[in-house]
Amino acid sequence: MPGERYLYDFKSQKAVLYQRGEYLYPLYGGSAEHWVSGDYAFCLTTQRITYWILGKDVYGHLGNGELTREPVFYYGD
After folding, report:
1. pLDDT number for residue 1
2. What is the pLDDT of residue 24?
3. Tens-place pLDDT, residues 28-71
4. What's 43's DSSP letter?
5. Is 3 exposed, middle or buried (0-12, 13-18, 19+ CB in 10 A)?
6. Whole-angstrom Cα distance, residue 47 to residue 10?
7. Structural domain spans, the chain
8. In Å, what is the CA distance from 18 to each residue of 5, 8, 47, 65?
9. Residue 13 phi, psi dihedral angles, 5° rounding
10. How far apart are CA 17 and CA 69, in angstroms?
């Protein structure tokens, strides 16, 4: 994946994360917090699913296969 893709908070419309390659980084941080594999993002610390990516919308994963009703982020590209 060339360049970076930015993820925006659905409520505030502000960029909060960016994706470089298969990793997600906080906008103002140096270390990756998540990695993306297919339609899922996994926490690097816990190795658990944290987000589900559906097109440009990103939903939070609450556990036990349950997702947030509304997207929490969206890709701005």
Report:
1. 46
2. 96
3. 888 999 999 999 999 999 999 999 999 999 999 998 878 899 99
4. E
5. exposed
6. 25
7. 4-75
8. 5, 9, 19, 25
9. 65, 20
10. 20
